[in-house]
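Exercise 3.2. Students should predict the tertiary structure of the chain below and write it as structure tokens, then compare their answer with the key that follows.

Predict this chain's 3D structure.
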Amino acid sequence: MPWLIVFLPWAGALVLALIPPRGRLPAFLNIGVSAGTALLALALLALPEGVQGWTRTDAVNLPLVALAGIIGLAAATFSAATVDAERFDGLRARAYHAAFQVFMGAQFLALLSDNLGVMWVAIEIATLASILIVAIHGTPAAIEAAWKFFVLCGVGIALALFGTILLYLAALPVVGSGDPGLSWGALRAVAMQCDAGILSLAFVFLVVGYGTKAGLVPLHAWLPDAEAEGPLPISAVLSGLLLNAALVAILRAKAIVGLNPGALAPGPLLVGFGLASLLLAAFALWRRRDARRLFAWSSIEHMGLATLAFGLGANLAGMLHLMGHSLVKSAVFFAVGAAAHLKGSQKIADIGGLAASHPVLGWGLALGIAGLAGLPPFALFVSEFRLVTEAAARAPWLLLPLGLGLLVAGAALVRALQRLCLGVPTQDRPQPEAFALPGGLLWASVPVWSLLGLAVLLGFAAPAFLLALLADAARLLG
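Answer key:
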């Protein structure tokens, strides 16, 4: 099953690359492949956990795999409603749909890998597919964003590779050469016998390397450009999926290094990166004039919060935050994308009064922004409440900077909510061919409301089996 979840999107990518892009067939085939993958990802929750070759299913990745399937399907559905407005020629249309499914397959492989080397390869494949999609319009801004994405994440992935090699070398005298030296399960079993100095150095390189992909300060500069210039659905999958996979790689390494009493304590390093990301993003939110850039900076803020939670040892809060952020942020990017097609601009000043002019879309965006600000009834309210509670119990000194970051970021997002959704509506300048499918704007609004509904359920009505799974994930992560 894990390999089927990986190879179904890649097989779909091959078909989408070969078929002629006539009519809406590629868009609906994209939805079909994504729906099949989402069903497999959800079915995986019912199967026993275990290791099969290079793959592992456990409490850490199972909820995130299911989440990736749901968001992938939502992105494919939204894309079908808006792809005509992108005005791709035949070659670009093929590349867009094929690269999306290559990204999804690599995302699943990164989450399901037990082998840290395979995880590194999968995250690199997902990154390259993302860069292709960001650059696909070929405009100077898109090429610049893709180039920055490539250079900064290229540096990050090189550092992550070096950290992976060091981790292998630390375990080599204990487990010998071959796959066990890169297996997460095998490395956890022998972590106490590995060289503490090499483990510490490996963890530093892995945090900085994968932290680049996760959008953590200081190597975060690619994220606002990539999410502002690429096609609209790529913003959702970058924030909702790629950042999660990179952070999971860090957490897998943390679980290994944290078992060795002589190694560097991983918690304070993660707290430092998380706090820096939270505070920088919180103040940067006040200076944004472009809606997609605003929410890209919000992604940096929330990844900082999740990293801070994991560094503090509040693993359950961190897992809830990762999942809640993915759901709400994807919904917000879909809503902002639809609004940009309606208004002919993604500038905040041009998207005003959306709740009055287009109530279904406008109130969906308003609720999504409220969720990002940490307001109830969404999962992020629960995760942030848990984080503040854990900080008060474990590190009271964190309450001041953490509270400052949450308040500044929350106020900036509420201000954006007022400017985007309330007040006097701005003039519509709909892009040609936007929302050409039957149902029009309603088709594009369904993913928004569906993801927001799941974010509410996750926060206040999560099934018992999911809560047990997240509690087990918290235990595995140490």
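Discussion points: Strands lie at 50-52, 55-57. The mean pLDDT is 88.
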